Each structure stands twice: as structure tokens, then as C-alpha cells.
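$ fold --in a.seq
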Amino acid sequence: MPKPPPPSAPLPLPLLRADCTNCFALCCVALPFAKSTDFAVNKPAGTPCKNLRQDFRCGIHTRLRDEGFPGCTVFDCFGAGQQVSQVTFGGRDWRTHPGTAGAMFEVFPVMRHLHELLFYISEALTLPAAGPVHADLRTALADTTRWTEATPEALADLDITPLRQQVNSLLLKASELVRAKAAGRRKNHRGADLMGARLSGADLRGANLRGAYLIAADLSGADLRTADLIGADLRDTDLRDADLRDALFLTQSQLSAARGNPGTRIPDSLARPAHWLT
């Protein structure tokens, strides 16, 4: 695992939700996207999206899905955008200070990885059944948080893979401890190809769905309480009337990519996507 910067004063946990008002639209510039069902056009990395205004706001924000950019509506930087914009680069934007652009765009994906790890670690620390690994999780939380305060040069040189592997090992242990308490037989669909699968009403309590491909699967009315959904692909998944309360490592991005309705039960920490109500 890469060694984090040395500790100084205790660092507060960064905000792990996107605050676009304090970001220089990094997701609209730094990242590439390809013309597809998610994006209406091709855009290379480091090039501003054609819809980006001078004030770093999106010119079609309220019409993204109608204009062919649903991929933008489901992207979540976990707060990395404002961290890079306001902390790593001290509020210097890439338009006013063009010399920062290359480094800023290089650092943004690294910071997003770090914030995503912090999101998962923070959730694992709220799980009482995962108590046996809480001490190790707290160490990982502190080390990862220190990395978010590193210099642009250190972040650009960071090999994120060993850190992700170490954290993932802890998250898997936490998941196993929680899922062991689920009633009935716990299904293992880790990494499974379940695209278009008919799982309406299925009892998936405590299931391992890590990295599963659930694109366009029918999970309407399914019970997904304490199912591990880390990395599961929920694009166009039917979650109408499904129960995702206490689902493990579910993100806002996953919910936004899926289809649900007012009867879909979700964790209190997440918001019901607006398109579920139309």
C-alpha cells in the first residue's frame, strides 16, 4: 500500500457529496465520453463539453436526459470535484489560471477514487456487525483522508491500485460479517452476468452481487436488504417496489442509473432520483 503523507493536525473527513457550486466543472472537462446511449457526442479528455458555460455551469442541466446525456445525470464524483478545485488547487480555476489545467485534470480521477473509497469505508464503519474490522477501517479512513490533502504532484504519482486492494479486502470482510446474519440461503452472484435476468420478487437478502451485471434486469419487488451491491451495474435495472433498505455499499449513481418508483424502498442516506417520479 502506498504510504500516505505524514499526519499533521487531525484532518476532517472531506465532503463526500458533489458540490458543483464549488467545482470548476471538472467532470465536464477532465473526463472523456463516447457517443452512445449515455452521451450524444464524443468528447476527448481535457476538452470542455460543448454544453459547458463560462461560469462552469451546464447549459442544458435541466434537459440532460432529453438532450441525450443521461450519463451525466448518473455520474457521481463523491465530492472529489470541489476537493480538487478548492483544496488541492486553492480555488484557482483552469480558465483564469490555464497553467493548472493539465495537472488539475490529471489529479481529478485520482481524487475521485480516493473519495469513493472514503464513501465505502465510512459506510462500513456504521455497520455494527462489522465491528471486528472497525479498527482497521479507521486506520484506512485516516490514511485515505491524508491522501486527499496531498500535493498535486504526489496525487499524480499515486498508484491507487494497492490502496484500493487493501480497502477492498476490509470492505469484503465487513460485508461477510453483515451478510452472515441474513436469514435464509445467501446467494453468491459476484461478478455474474445477470443482464436482463428475471428476478422479480426474488429473495436476495444477504446476496453477494459485487460487480454483477444487472443491466435491464427485472428486480421489481425483490428483497435486497443487506445484499452487497458494490460495483454492481444497475443501468436500466427495474427496481420498482424493490426493497433496498440496508443494501450494502449502494451509491446514488447506481440508483440514478436504475428505474424505480415511489414504492421502491431505499436507504435514508440516499435520495430518490427525480426521474423515478415521472
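$ fold --in b.seq
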Amino acid sequence: MTAYPLRPIGHVESSLKDRAAAPRQADEGAPDAWLVLGDEYLPAVDGLAPGTDVLLLTWLDRADRDTLAVRPRGDTARPVTGVFATRSPDRPNPIGLHTVHILSVAGPRIHVRNLEALDGTPILDIKPILTSDR
């Protein structure tokens, strides 16, 4: 198969350091965090504003890429399920998908609400959530 190399555009700064202690989803107590982009991406930040919700794509660099099936949420009472039917971070291409709310923008740093990504997680992209007015 063809390889498609990815280049991180930045990283997450968060109080979350340990995967075992991190919430599984943003609405389960995820803290505010900073998206720290490389200075060369400053022109790409133009148009992002406080109060906006965006999709954040990350590379879950501490995930197990060999995992193909899991018990959802680690619950032994649930049946083993293929990772493509779950939100498990362990998967062949561990791309994280997060909806975050922008609190502030300071140059190449973006302060966001409720991000469950660990400190140092590479950022792949930021995309607007499309609405009828866009």
C-alpha cells in the first residue's frame, strides 16, 4: 500500500499527562488546553475566533496501532467489537477527532475548552464545523 506521510502542525499543552487518568470523552471532565502551532502556521489561524467550535484532528501517539478489536470502554461485560465501530484510541491509524470550543487566540496559540488529548499530543489539522451560513 502507498504511505501518506503526515506532518504535525503543532502539539497540545494540557494538564493531562497520564492516559489511564484521562477522560475517555470531552464531556467526561476534560480540561481546557492549548493548541500550540508552529509559527509558520500563523497565517492559517486567521479567521479562528473565540466562541467558535472546530474539529481538531490529532495523532494519538501513545496508541497501540496493532489493536483491531476491543471491549468498548474497557467494559468486560460488553462484547469484543472491531475498533472501526468504536472510539478507541488504539487502532491502525490512531487519528483523534475532537470537537473543541475556542476560548481565545493568541498568535499561534489557541486556548480551547474540554480537550481530552494528552499533553504533547501532535496536532494534524483544525477544521471548521460547517453550518448553513458557511
